[in-house]
Amino acid sequence: MEFKTIRTDAVPEIRLSGRMEFTDHDRLVEIVTELHEMPGSRVVLDLSGLEFIDSAGLGMLLILQEEAETRNTKLIVRGAAGDVRRSIELARLSEIITFEH
To answer: Are 56 and 89 a contacting pair, CB within 8 Å?
Structure first.
């Protein structure tokens, strides 16, 4: 998995691409660090470049949600498509995390 941070005057974004799998757990630490350094009360997590997510990746989304909550930031996930979207829907993560389609 790769990620790119986009800081703008509007809502900052973290864009994920590739495959979000168990082996990406080390990258999660980097993303959490970025999340904590972002200004404002909202952050967008853009999954439009994500091709695959496994159960560990779904868990990582929950960790990001918890980290955002600890700093009173609203995490908005957008752009999930195909198998990634189906995996998120099956896990019913929309009951915990705000998703925009």
So the answer is: no
